[in-house]
Write a structure and sequence with these properties.
This protein is an all-alpha fold. It has one domain. The protein contains three helices and no strands. The radius of gyration is 13 Å and the shape is elongated. About 10% of the residues are buried.
């Protein structure tokens, strides 16, 4: 397994269907996804959040992101 790396780089790799990068991005957001799962309060909330995360990765456009200086 690769090192954690920059989140933006991981998302770009994940966008190209790199399974390991997708896993690492989801792993980084796991704590907040678990918190949301508890607050949503239904059985398949974590699965739905994971599907949403993968969809968000595929829609991510790094060119549209503004640089913060």
């Amino acid at each position: 397994m690769q090192k954690r790396g920059c989140l933006k780089e991981l998302i770009i790799k994940a966008k190209s269907s790199d399974q390991e990068s997708i896993y690492l991005v989801i792993s980084r957001f796991n704590p907040i996804m678990r918190k949301l799962e508890r607050s949503l309060g239904y059985d398949e909330a974590y699965s739905d959040l994971t599907i949403w995360m993968i969809s968000a990765i595929k829609k991510y456009d790094p060119i549209k992101q503004k640089q913060i200086s």
